[in-house]
Amino acid sequence: MSMRAAYPYYVVFCLMVASALSFLDRLALSMLIEPIKADLALSDTEVSILAGAAFAGSYVIFAFVFGRWVDTHGRRNAMVLGISLWSLATAAGGLARNFGSLFAARSLIGVGEASLNPAAYSMIADYFRPSRRGIATAIFACGATVGGGLAIMLGGQLVDWVYATGATLPLMPDAAPWQIVFVVIGLPGLLVALLIALTVREPERQLAGGETQDIPGIRDALVFIGSNARALVPLFAGYSCIAIIGYSFMVWGPVHFMRLHGLGAGDVGLLLGLGYGIGGTIGLLAGGVVSDMLVARGRIEAPVLVSLAAVAIDTPLFIGAYLAGDFMTAAVLFCLGMAAASVVGGLQISMVQSLAPNRLRGIMAAVFGACVNLAGFGIAPTITAMLAENLFGGEMGIGKALATMTALAGIGAAVLILIGMKPGRLLAQRLAGEGAQPAA
């Protein structure tokens, strides 16, 4: 492969590293829930607001800001700014002394991370033709499994290590172990921002036949969504239900395993981190390969079709993992469920790319990101905590609450995706017929 042909894959690798850091920074709090609760005297519901709503609220608002930016200005620079911001905000979480200051830090993480997906979705679509986007977006989405796995693994290991050694940081001699974790995982992101600024080139925009260089606005996106509501509304809602399944676990899964099965932070971090990182990455790449094969055979709706199959498999596996009393049974079911669920990670990017014209891909990615993050991070963790506290007997009922959320979301996802699949296929075919093809 020539250097020119390999460069788009280098760009995707850089985007994957950025995605890994974003998930590491957003999910580290999940491994630190118990010490944060103890030090700040918080309830499960209050912690769920920090883990979910604080992040999701600012993410949703600024996803539209960055979505507009990447449709009109340089996408690389938007990412560099966002990575720098969320990295500093994560480190600032290590300075938090109460609910309010940690809420502010989590909100700033959401602002920064809102830049990544709109910019990455748009750039990948310009670097790769449709028949190669499945594997390209799957590589990018591996950042979620790698980052999520690292968040769970390193969070647990770091907490155990700091408690065992009494380690401190310069200028922070009295910091709690969870505060040290935030600083240690946050600052390296600044190096990734510098790498992207120096080595990633802005790709030429590939305009479809009916598109012009005119700058689109929010009104254009709303008109497009309204004109294609039969496809976009049920599909975006269906993928939001899928997000509820995944993000409910990412916030409360580690705590569930610690409470029900009596594991320490380091043990559960190692087990679930490896399961999520390895199983999830295999699922992501497999989904991209299968989707590309089906697209090459004329099934342009392949990303949605494969996503539907993944939901049908992962929903009962997750429910079994939450309800199983035996630890090994629960761990195996979780790992299998995570591999199946992660199939969707790259395919949802392909779905958004195929259902939006180039000049609207940034803002459409912002709309999609707003939907899935509001549902998955903004709403699901808090509802799960409230179900456990008010319906399933308190802290030890978190597994039953997770199982309930997963069952409802899985059924909703299947129904909504089935409704949107046919109109989605017709819309993707129309846009593909109008589009110019990028080189890779």
The succession of helices and strands, N to C, reads HHHHHHHHHHHHHHHH
Q: Tell me the name of the CATH class.
A: Mainly Alpha
Broad structural category: mainly alpha
- Give the distance, in angstroms, between the N- and C-terminal Cα atoms: 11 Å
Average predicted confidence as pLDDT: 85
* Overall geometric form: globular
Main beta sheet strand tally, sense and closure: none
Rg measurement, Å = 21 Å
Helix content: over 70%
Task: Compute the number of helices.
Answer: 16
Taking pLDDT < 50 over at least 5 consecutive residues as the criterion, the unreliable ranges are 208-212, 436-440
- The number of E-state strands comes to 0
How many domains would you count in the coordinates? Answer: 1
Description:
By secondary structure, this protein is mainly α. The chain has a single domain (3-201, 216-434), classed as Growth Hormone, Chain: A (Up-down Bundle), CATH 1.20.1250. The protein has helices at residues 3-31, 33-40, 44-72, 75-92, 99-113, 116-127, 130-165, 177-186, 189-199, 218-227, 229-261, 265-296, 302-323, 327-354, 361-390, 398-434. α6 runs antiparallel to α7, α10 (218-227) crosses α11 and α11 packs antiparallel against α16 (398-434). It is globular and about 60 Å long. 59% of the residues are buried. Mean pLDDT is 85; it is low at 208-212 and 436-440.
